[in-house]
Amino acid sequence: MKIETKAVHAGHLNESTRDVTAAIHLSTTFEKAADGSLPGGHLYARPSNPNREALERALATIEDGAAALSFSSGSAATLGVLHALSPGDHVIAGTDVFYGTLILLKSLMSNWGLTYSQVNMQDLSAVEQAITPKTRLIWVETPSNPLLSVSDIAGIVAIARKFDLAFNLTTRGLLVACDNTVATSMNQRPLQLGADITMHSVTKYISGHSDVLGGALIFREAGPLFEKIHAIQREGGSVPSPFEAWLTLRGMQTFPYRMRAHSENAQKVAEFLNKHPKVEAVHYPGLPSHPGHQIAARQMTAFGGLLSIQVKGRQADAFKVCAAVKIFTHATSLGGTHSFIEHRKSVEGENGRSPENLLRLSVGLEHPDDLMEDLDQALRF
Ligand SMILES: *Cc1c(COP(=O)(O)O)cnc(C)c1O
C-alpha cells in the first residue's frame, strides 16, 4: 500500500459508534473489569490513550517502521533517545546539527555524563575517526536545518555496523538515529537504509498547520531499544495530549500531498533565487550545484520545502528582507501551510553556526509565482 492511502487510513480508531473521524478521548483513567483486567486496553493517560495509540500506529505505518512513540515535542523525542544512553557514553553529531539538539547535548545531557563530538558528517572518514570505544550513538540530521547539508545515511550506517563487530558489541551496539524532520517520511526512508531510529519534529510537516507541538520516534525493530525508550516515554510522561494527537492525525491525512507541493514550490523558489543578483548562495539539495545533490538524489525521492539563502550583504541587509516581505511571514519554525522567513543567527546567538547574511525559508503552500514575486520585491536592499 502506498503512503497516500496509509496516511488517510492508518490512524483509524475502531469505535462502536463507527466514526469515520476519530473522537477525542479526554479521559485520564479507564474502568477496570472485576478481575482488574483492562477491557478497553488502557489504564491511565500517561502510559497510553486511544488517540495517542492511533497516532503511534499511524506514524509507524507511514514510515514502514516496526513501532513508533509520540512525544510532546521533537526535542522531547530527541531527549528520549539520549536518556536511553548511559553516563559516560559518547555521541557523534554533525557540526551543523540543529541548534536545539546541540543545546540538549551541551547543556542538559552533560549533567547526565554524556560526552559528544561534532564532526563534518559529509566526510565519512571524519565520522569514522571520531568513533571511540565509548561511542554509542551517531546522530545524523539530513538535510540539516538550516544549512541543508546532506549526509550519506547508508554510508554512516555501514561504518556503525563495522564498529559493532570491531568492539564486539552484541546487538546494535552503535546506534544510528536520523533526524528526518526536514526530509520527512515522504521523501526519505532512513530505516530502510539501516538506521535504527528516525526522529521527527511532528510540529513541522507531519502535523503541517503550525498548530501542534509534537515529536516522534520511529523504530526499525520493536526490540529492547524500543522497549527502553517506551519506558522513558511512559514513566517520564513527555507525551502529546489527546487533542494534539488528534490534530496530528488530522494533518497527517493530507501530509503526502502537502509534501509534494512543498517540494515542488521550494524547487521553483530555489531556482529563482539561485539566479537572483542580490543572492550570494542558495542552499537547497534539489539544485545540481548543491554539494550534496548526488547523495540527496540517491536517498531522497524529492528535496523538501526548506531552503536557506545568503544575501549579498550583511546582517542588516538580511533583516531588511525580513521586514519587506508581504506574503512570507517573518517567523520561526517550518513545515506549515504559510511560508516563513527567518534570520537564524539572531535566534542562535553568538555561538550559532549560521552566517550573518543567512535567511532560512520554509516554502509553504501559496502559489510559487506569488512567493517569487514577494521575494523579488523584498530583495531590493
Ligand atoms: C524543530 C526541529 C527540532 C525540534 O523540534 P521541536 O518540536 O521544536 O521540539 C529538531 N530537529 C529539527 C531538524 C527541527 O527542525
Bound molecules: pyridoxal-5'-phosphate
Total count of domains: 2
Could you describe the largest sheet, including whether it forms a barrel? Answer: 7 strands, mixed
Q: Any guess at the CATH architecture of the largest domain? A: 3-Layer(aba) Sandwich
CATH superfamily of the largest domain: Type I PLP-dependent aspartate aminotransferase-like (Major domain)
Low-confidence blocks of residues: none
Q: Radius of gyration over alpha carbons? A: 21 Å
Reading off the top of the CATH hierarchy, the class of the largest domain is best stated as: Alpha Beta
Number of strands: 12
Helical content stands at 25-40%
Distance between the termini: 50 Å
Strand arrangement across the biggest beta sheet: 1-7-6-5-4-2-3
Question: Structural class of the helices, strands and pairings?
Answer: alpha/beta
Helix count from the secondary structure assignment: 14
Shape: globular
Order of helices and strands: HHEHEHEHEHEHEEHHHEHEHEEHEH
